[in-house]
Amino acid sequence: MSSGLVYLFEHPGNPAFPNFFVSLYFTLTTLTTVGFGDITPISAEGRFIVSVSILAGATLIPVQLSSLANSFGEELSDKNKATLPEIALGPWQCRHCNEPSHRADAAFCFRCGVALRPPVSTDATQDP
């Protein structure tokens, strides 16, 4: 849109803007902060449009990049949640450091390294 407005205001009095594509080139080099300096607007309207475009780009581009980064972060977070299995915790406590939670498949305490023993069951229905 800004390319069209720059062309509209600069083409009649500025020979550096002979067609829309030159205006597009100027706008892209300006908004991407490359700014070669080979073309410059000379009318007050053209300079105003370029100034507004620069300010809009300086405020909108970081917001859009932040939104894009958040989307990627949420997608990666969702993938990690979907691929990581739930870790089952065993019902025993370390006899040395009293750490109450261990993985169900743990043979040693993750905190102190002492070998874990499964709890003694008091349920009479279990087979010996």
From TrEMBL:
Its main location: membrane. Residues 16-70 form the Potassium channel domain. It is found in: Membrane. The chain crosses the membrane at residues 20-36. One of its GO terms (molecular function) is potassium channel activity. The keyword Ubl conjugation does not apply. Gene3D superfamilies: 1.10.287.70. The keyword Cytoplasm does not apply. Keywords: Ion channel, Ion transport, Membrane, Potassium, Potassium channel, Potassium transport, Transmembrane, Transmembrane helix, Transport. It holds the Pfam family Ion_trans_2. InterPro entries: K_chnl_dom, K_chnl_Slo-like. It is a multi-pass membrane protein. One of its GO terms (cellular component) is membrane. This is Potassium channel domain-containing protein. The lineage of its organism: Eukaryota, Sar, Alveolata, Dinophyceae, Suessiales.
